[in-house]
Design goal:
Strands 1, 2, 3, 4, 5, 6, 7 and 10 form an eight-stranded mixed sheet that branches. Strands 8-9 form a two-stranded antiparallel ribbon. The chain is elongated, with a radius of gyration of 27 Å. Helix 3 packs across helix 5 (103-132). It has 382 residues and is an alpha+beta fold. Helix content is 51%, strand content 15%. The chain has 13 helices and ten strands.
Length: 382
């Protein structure tokens, strides 16, 4: 729902013309689509983009930036906007005027919100709403059942969305205020892991679309559940790959090994490989960037099937926190010394095996470490 900045509304020297004549609504628009729009938006169409910007007290240029950032399509000067669109513009502009947000930050807020909710809305329509609106009786059309279903679901889904958002906001805010300094709020030291299904491209040529979709959904769902349950954060899913982060190396290691073990116990799943790196990470709009992320991705590409490779910084962090011994020889010496003194030997969760150094494209020579569980334990370690 963006507009042409150079269209009706401003002349060549920047002065605003009188209110342009709005285009009429497309007479070919589906009546049910219009009714659903009115139901979901809770208001009727009243404004052209020019009128909405003027009513909100913002320039067309700024309004266009906000709308584009939110991912709305260009509607020219059709009368398709509601009072809610005016209020949203007024709120964003008000945050800028009050000095709470810079204009660039307000655009980022619009973009991050738009991108996230667009994906959510697509999923709800494609996977959720579509199934619910299957005609319950012969002779009924989907059109006849869609409107009442949406009418019943809308308030519940809205309340649930706000609840989850507040919960996530509280968790994220808690992590930020615990950061050591201002720089750490943006550039933080995190463990970043990639988990990748092996041979996924070959699978896409052999499997039916529906079967492939079910496999991807099962992989993403299982991964998301494991990451969340163990205290990590799922950054994004890419079909055959998931990216997650954790504040400490031990949590990231546990997640990685659980992912490999869980997928290995599922005969319908291909093998999995995981790469993890530890270091400074830049966070932007819910995503993570930087050399640490790139290294984790490269480690994944060279990891053996059903195995986890980590970088040296990650291995050193596990050793520092007492989650893994510096070597098996050192662990044996510690155990012998503890037994001699009648004390409990160290209880390490993980084992690290250095692998051959190798050049990694764009990152120079790295020394990967193979991460495994220590001892004979398998499966869930809780």
């Amino acid at each position: 729902m963006t507009v042409d900045d150079t269209g009706s509304g401003a002349d060549g020297d920047g002065r605003v013309d009188p209110e342009p004549a709005p285009d009429s609504a497309d007479p070919g628009e589906d009546p049910l689509a219009l009714r659903l729009e009115g139901l979901i938006l809770g208001a009727e169409r009243r404004y052209t983009p020019f009128q909405a910007a003027r009513s909100a007290g913002v320039s067309m240029e700024l309004a266009s930036r906000f709308w584009r950032a939110m991912g709305f399509a260009d509607i020219g000067q059709a009368k398709a906007l509601t009072e809610a669109d005016v209020l949203a513009l007024r709120r964003l502009a008000g945050l800028v005027e009050a000095g709470l947000l810079s204009e660039a930050m307000a655009v980022q807020v619009a973009r991050s919100t738009g991108q996230t909710t667009a994906r959510l809305a697509e999923w709800q329509i494609d996977s959720f709403l579509e199934g619910l609106t299957e005609p319950p009786e012969p002779g009924m059309t989907r059109t006849e059942v869609t409107y009442p279903i949406v009418e019943l679901l809308l308030p519940e889904l809205q309340e649930f969305l706000v609840y989850v958002w507040r919960r996530q906001l509280a968790a994220s805010a808690g992590r930020v205020v615990q950061a050591g300094d201002d720089e750490e709020m943006v550039d933080r030291r995190l463990a970043v892991g990639f988990a990748d299904l092996v041979g996924f491209t070959r699978l896409t040529r052999r499997m039916e679309e529906e079967e492939l979709g079910e496999l991807v959904e099962a992989f993403e769902t299982t991964s998301a559940d494991l990451v969340a349950a163990r205290g990590g954060r799922l950054i994004k899913t890419l079909g055959d790959e998931v990216l997650y982060a954790a504040d400490d190396a031990g949590t990231a290691a546990e997640i990685a090994l659980l992912l490999v073990e869980t997928m290995a116990n599922d005969e319908t799943m291909p093998e999995l490989r995981v790469g993890i790196a530890f270091g400074t990470v830049t966070t932007r709009m819910g995503d993570v960037f930087g050399t640490t992320v790139n290294l984790a991705s490269r480690l994944t590409s060279i990891a053996p099937k059903d195995a986890v490779l980590v970088d040296t910084a990650f291995a050193e962090e596990l050793i520092r926190t007492g989650d893994a011994p510096a070597s098996e020889a050192a662990a044996a010496e510690e155990t012998a010394a503890a037994e001699k003194e009648g004390a409990e030997p160290p209880a390490y969760r993980f084992a690290l095996q250095p692998m051959w150094q190798r050049p990694v494209r764009g990152l120079g020579v790295v020394e990967p470490w193979l991460l495994t569980r220590r001892g004979a334990r398998g499966g869930d370690s809780s």
